[in-house]
Amino acid sequence: MQDHTTAAPEARLIRALGVWGLAAGIINVTIGGGIFRLPSAAATQLGTAAPMAYIVCAVAMGLIVLCFAEAGSRVELTGGPYAYVEVAFGPFVGFLAGVLLWVVGTLALSAVTALFADSVGALVPALTGGAARVVLLVAVLGMYAAINVAGIRQGSAVNTVATVAKLLPLLLLVIVGVFAVKGGNLAWTDAPAAGDVARASAFLIFAFAGIESALVPSGEVKDVARTVPRAILMAMVGITLLYIAIHLVAQGLLGGALAGHPTPLAEAAGRVMGPTGRTLLLVGASISMFGYVGGMTLAVPRALFALGRDGFLPRALASVHPRHRTPHVAIWTQGVIVILLALTSGFERLAILANLATLLLYGACCLAAWELRRKNVQAGGIPFKVPGGAVVPFLALAAIAYLLSSITLGEWATAGAVLVIAAILYFVTANARKANPAVR
Question: Distance (Å, rounded) from C-alpha 315 to C-alpha 438?
């Protein structure tokens, strides 16, 4: 196993992210475009019992983030979950986790980037389709890439501003809409089947996912033993409460019309605030996705940096800018990949595959948290310890298994193919990595 204590590229990164900056990053990449669309999907699956899916997701994520909090307080390397799993189980399993991490971030970022282009096109028809769409995506991804190359502080500051901007219309809908909710629209008619709840919850994971990408810049976080667990718990409690409140207000305002509606929150805002409210939510959706793209542009390229640093991908990806001290090659490479996927792929398929990869990655990280505690790995300072640490990781795994029970055979086949290709890449690069080992 490689030495995780010294490294030329790693040591040159600046530790500038604190509790509030990291928490804002988690909220920013978690509250993306999904919450503006997924309430209608949950209602289609479960009707008025849809809040059950949010509760299942919240319970599962609560168990999972406890494991992330402990693992993140014990490992301070860039790569987040990739680094946690590698330190716990060695380079091969760590590499597979790193590939899953990058796949999750890339698919999710590409899906939301495509939705962002659609949303902007709905507001400004001149930017719909063709060359205008390409120019829009290149401009947005290029701008965010340039900001993040300029420095981690600049990227974090933009994320904090975007987080505040995206939350305002959502909070306004909840505050104003709660007074117009019709109680009858919230009444349950039938108890949903367990399989339906699992499928709806697995789909809603897209709205809860993001923590795994927000933690990738661990090598640029101050005092990880204190910062990571506090930021995770602060962000996830707020996100869960907001999601449940949003769905209940939308369901209470729209009733049966919520199921299948393409713009459910904008329609709900229109019911209570008129055309101005509807436009405000449409603009809010665009801002939210714009902020998500910014947050993920900060986080996802660090996975490429980590894979390049370790010799699995070209080492040029681990280059650090001589002046800004940021992984500039990885940032620009990731931007090009996302633009290509956003221009050629659809949201739904990308979201489903991202969810499957996310759940597999979460399972690996839960096991890693248990193993890191068993090995007493410490990054400096006193690590956070999960209450009931011997049991919580396995409860989290049980919750993940329940969500995975709804995944189709075709979706499993796609995930399996990705892991097989990753394993081949690992062994093909073995000799090159031995001849030129990564210095970390």
Answer: 9
